Amino acid sequence: MSGLFAGTPLEQPVTCPRCNRRIGDCTCPRDDQGKLHDPAQWPARVRREKNRGKYLTIASGLGLREKDQKALLAHLKSKLGVGGSLKDNELTLQGDHRDTLVELLKAQGYPAKPSGG
Ligand SMILES: [Zn+2]
Hints:
By secondary structure, the chain is an alpha+beta fold.
């Protein structure tokens, strides 16, 4: 069928395949090229450190930009009910939550594993 609209680009709403929102409203993590961040590609590691007698649980290798690291940190802090901070592309949470943090990251799609002692 040819007609009045022949030759005009068909305008399609571009939606995000992950959240189904329009691209302008999508807040899914993306890389610098605008490609969706795929947690399955990032084997995150969760380790534990002792600092002045207190444990810290540290997640690294998430492959997120800073803005998205902050969003994930906020999510993990509220899930664990503890404080935390972001430094050198690592998420640090207060207390010993290594196993729980591994599970929380797995729930986000990361093939996360505990590391260290
Ligand atoms: Zn999205």
